[in-house]
Amino acid sequence: MLVLPDWAVQALQVLSVLTLAPLISGLIARTEAIIQQRKGPRVLQPYHDILKLLRKETVLPAPAGPLFRAAPYVSFAGYATVPLLIPVLTSFGLPLGYMGDILAGGLILGMASFVISIAAIDSGSPYAQLGSSRVRTFGALNEPIVIFVVFVVALTTHTDLPYVLGATLRSSAVEVVRPSHLLIVAAFFMLVLTETGRIPVESHGGTLEFGQMEQGRVAEHSGPGLAFLRWGSAVKQLVLYTIFANVLVVPWGLASTGRLDRVALAIALLFCKAVGIGAAVVVVETSFAKLRLYKIPEFTVASFMLAVLAVVIFLFEPGFGDAHLSVFGAAATIAAVVVLLTELGMLRSQDVWEQLRLYSLGSTVVAALAIATAASGHGGSSLYVLAAATIALKALLFPLGIRFVLRNLEVNERVPSVIGVPSGLLIAISLSAFAFIALRPIHIGGVAALPLSALPVAVSGVLVGFLLMMLRPYAPSQLLGFLVLENAVSVASLVISPGLPIILALLLLFDVLIGVLVFVVLVQYLAIQRTAVRTDALNRLTG
Prior knowledge:
- With 543 residues, the protein is an all-alpha fold.
- It has helices at 6-35, 45-54, 66-81, 102-123, 126-138, 142-157, 162-171, 179-195, 208-211, 223-249, 260-287, 296-316, 327-348, 352-375, 382-409, 421-439, 449-471, 475-496, 502-528.
- Helix 1 (6-35) packs parallel to helix 11, helix 8 (179-195) packs antiparallel against helix 10 (223-249) and helix 16 packs antiparallel against helix 17.
- The protein is globular, with a radius of gyration of 25 Å.
């Protein structure tokens, strides 16, 4: 079999990214159109747009100078340079692979974006300048997020080289399910949404005035310059997807040698990974509405706080030692982190319907953990009954019933908070860090080491549930805080005592059912009294 030289593989890395980038963008746009039941563009439309623009004449605004003309090509060169530094096709460093670390790649991407912003100012157009200003303002926290993500990577591998982190994850699958690693994955995914201009930050399918950010700052470009800007935007998206997949999430499937068949397989797997991440992006874009302009900083702040929490958890989480990866341990850790993330999402959101969807998702995760616990032999077959009851009651019946009651009462769907969302998230991060510090000396016993790291995450969920109840003095949020608190307790009980008798678990579900019934009666009574659905209204009924 033909073995390609290292320089040829490195050139093939850049060529693969440049070639596949428009295709990934076309697939995402086409999939969104199908889900939204509209005709939408063709899959290959980005290629046609680029070729058409390359043949058009360049029209320059009157104030534009040399910087405006050079910016599209400088930014494109920056985006095309990053694939030389990251593991795109191979698991080993190529001739230029160790010339820069993750920070160097982030610096190059930031430089390319900065050049486009400067060109927008140079154009003299108020619309382009507005888009440039918004991009720079909302992206102010992106650099600290990258720094904290790199900090966790450096703590894990004692270096910030992307090839080394991928090798560490491949050598020990235990590292993949560390709570700190899962949190930086979530933070980096939110960063990808921000940097690629996706909902909830911006809409690629909307009009120019809808976001007036990424598309606004390139509004004055035309011809080949605009072609390279659009192509560069697609390349930047695929580069971020590649870093997310081949460095943080699934660094498997890369070629270990320069053999042509293995390199070709790596190209195919790169395409599949990018399509998978694109599918996740489509789910986010079709499930959420674009945030209001003044709410966008809250999204970036939430991502930043997740990265900070990842650093704190890494410093205080229990050591794994030589523990082997078990299905039960991995499921317990992942479920605990997902439940905690849904609670943080509920704390960030002030929309009661979105909170109900997040609670339903968390309940489904708890049911999946019960199934994994039984399937791995750590619990009896009665856990399957518990999983079925959890899905039926907590994932379906309770959210639908609460939604029905609130819609009939015409309750305001916006639930205000006692303090601002960023402050609430900061308190939640502090409580989660406290849980890890307080539970660090605790040892569960005969169970493998992985569930030991899931226990403080579950306790963090309990504390965040209490916080949600305190910061939202409205009956719907009080109930949801109680319900998510019960989800965290369920995760903790499955971690500490996987063989928990089914009667105890069902009694816990019965308590939740009573809480929901009390909520319905309370809300109905408050509605009859024509008061706001606030729990502090009870103070007027105490004599």
